[in-house]
Amino acid sequence: MRYQPFSLLTEYNILFIRCLMVLFLSCLTIRLNFCSSSIPSSLKALPLMGHFSFEEADLKHVARDFGNRYQSHPMAVLHPKSVSDIADTIKHIWNLGPGSHLTVAARGHGHSLQGQAQSHGGVVINMESLTVPEMQVYAGESPYVDVSGGELWINILHETLRYGLTPRSWTDYLHLTVGGTLSNAGVSGQAFRHGPQISNVQKLEIVTGTGEVVNCSEEQNGDLFHSVLGGLGQFGIITRARIFLEPAPTMVKWIRVLYADFTAFTRDQEKLIFAEKAFDYVEGFVIINRTGLLNNWRSSFNPQDPVQASKFKSDGRTLFCLELAKYYNLEETLVVNQEVEKHLSHLNHIPSTLFQTEVTYVDFLDRVHISEVKLRSKGLWDVPHPWLNLFIPKTKIHHFAEVVFGNIVTETSNGPVLIYPVNKSKWDNRTSVVIPDEDIFYLVAFLASAVPSSNGSDGLEHILSQNKKILEYCERAHLGVKQYLPHYTTQEAWRVHFGSQWQIFQQRKSVYDPLAILAPGQQIFQKSIAFS
Length: 532
Description:
Its EC number is 1.5.99.12. By secondary structure, this protein is an alpha+beta fold. The chain has two domains: 46-248 and 498-531, 2-Layer Sandwich (Uridine Diphospho-n-acetylenolpyruvylglucosamine Reductase, domain 3), CATH 3.30.465; 251-483, 3-Layer(aba) Sandwich (Vanillyl-alcohol Oxidase, Chain A, domain 3). It contains 17 helices and 19 strands. The chain has helices spanning 4-44, 56-62, 83-96, 153-161, 178-182, 191-194, 222-228, 262-274, 293-297, 306-311, 333-344, 361-365, 367-377, 397-408, 460-476, 491-498, 502-512, and strands spanning 51-53, 76-79, 104-107, 123-126, 136-138, 144-148, 165-167, 201-208, 213-217, 236-247, 251-259, 281-288, 302-303, 318-328, 355-360, 388-393, 417-423, 440-446, 482-484. The strands form three sheets. The protein has a nine-stranded antiparallel β-sheet with strand order 13-15-11-14-12-17-18-16-19.
């Protein structure tokens, strides 16, 4: 009985501590609610040329992306009319300090796949609103174009063609913004010759995570320049870019041929990316169990041997299509035809599957948009897109193909599976993009579209399960694969992705965005919230 007072005292202490905790949490909630409610008014008070939107329709629009799988609502959407609008907004959030939960995401045309351009409870910047200063083309000995970070590549194409010029490197789809592709890499069938789009930039204007506007190039602020290229939006927002140009062709000879043998297919692809005066574009794709394949091609391509092509059967087979393009002007037609015929004669494709066509340069580069229009008309564009893009070392591509195209992927009717080699010498290892450590590596892209509400092989769950099996195999077999347009949900996974580059990536973040305000949707760094 003599110990009872001590017990009673302990109970009182526990009760007292609990009361204090309740009081603290109540105050904290009140403070957070007060801060949250005061933020919109502080944003509204900023003297901007553009404006903030807090409308539900606007917030819902930017909470979605092309991937159509992740939705994260911001507090506000900034529609900037000047670079200073972006800088002032970020500077304001920076000045709020670590006590503010606000983050900032730059959104271009909304073609992210997994919410990378979203900012939960933060600010999304609509980069397409940034239209000033206007695009400027500089012709001359070393031509270039100065463009806004929110400009679409399709608009750049049309404007530069007025001067007989064109950018050198593209993506397969042109309705993307400059800032978006340069924050990743920008890869297509021209990359073997000119490198990705990030290898074709002379100069950038950047707004850093502290709100500072910085001009940079290889010679000026070179570390920031290389950090931002392929930097997944972590170090700054690209508000202006100077893109290298070259003389533009007017026509394209577009060719497709089929292979049944993967070794012959890759050998010819690798031969072509090093051949002199061969093709300007080299890609390929995998076809598994497609019915009437060549008949489908006839709507756009002409078979060299119509009789033999009509006898070819693709049903139940795994085939590999080599897709080539040769740029030219009409006065060069005869010479180009001879060159193409010479290079094709050295290939080991199935003879009856040679298809060709001639299209304008614009129609070739904008070919995916034509498919987009058709899909939109059928309501099949705004569906989930669980895409998976991989960089695979050349020495591992046959192992990968044997297992993935032999056992995991059983059909390709959900969307194209691209596969083509890239020449590492055309990439700058000072940028932030992560690629395999071999002289040649392959881009393999599984570009599936999921049918809503389907539980079959065309449904979202099946495609995600297939992607998971592919990634698990790559990890289990130690293939040295790197994701392109990467998506991870833990910092440890990001650390593994960056490998030896992780430390410098982290250091750059601490310099250019120390509060982790920018691009929270990438889920690389978490903004630390401090309470004073």
